[in-house]
C-alpha cells in the first residue's frame, strides 16, 4: 500500500491530475461559449466553429499556465497541431468502435482514458519540449 501511495504521490502524477482538472474546466468553457452563441441566434455549426477556435485559445492558456508553467504564444502552432492530431485519433477510434457495433456514447467512453493520456503526452511535449519521463519535476 505504501508503494502505491508513493507511486501516486509523484510530481508527474500530480501534474497529470491537474491536467485532468483543467480539462474539465476547458470542457465547461467550450460548452458555455457554444450555448451562449446559440442563444444569441447563431446557427449551431457556426457556434461550434467559433467555440472551437475560442476553446483552443483558452485551452492553450490554461494548459500552458496552470499545468506546465509556460508563458507566451510561441508554442500555439504546435499545440494546435497536437490538438488536431488527437481529434483525428479520437474520430478514428470512435468510427472503428462504432463499426464493431458499440454505440457512440459507449465507444467514446471507452476511448476517453486513452485520449486523456495521449493528450497529456502530446500537449506536454509541445509545451515543455520533452516527454514527462524526461522533464524536470514541476515546481
Characterize the structure shown.
This protein has 139 residues and is mainly α. It contains 5 helices and no strands. Helix 2 packs antiparallel against helix 3. The chain is globular and about 55 Å long. The two termini are 26 Å apart. 13% of the residues are buried.
From the spread of the alpha carbons, the general shape counts as globular
Helix/strand-derived category reads mainly alpha
Task: Please state the CA-atom Rg, rounded to the nearest Å.
Answer: 17 Å
Number of separate strands: 0
Element string (H = helix, E = strand) = HHHHH
What is the helix fraction of residues, given as a range?
A: over 70%
Uncertain runs with pLDDT below 50, 5 residues or more? Answer: none
- Chain-averaged pLDDT: 89
Number of helices: 5
Describe the largest sheet: none
Question: Could you state the oligomeric state of the chains shown?
Answer: single chain
Beta-strand portion reads under 5%
Distance between the termini: 26 Å
Q: Topology, pairings included?
A:
Blueprint: H1 2-8, H2 11-39, H3 44-67, H4 76-99, H5 104-128
Helix pairs in contact: 2-3, 4-5
Provide a concise account of the structure shown.
The chain is mostly helical and 139 residues long. Helices cover 78% and strands 0% of the residues.
Keywords:
single chain; 139 residues; 78% helix
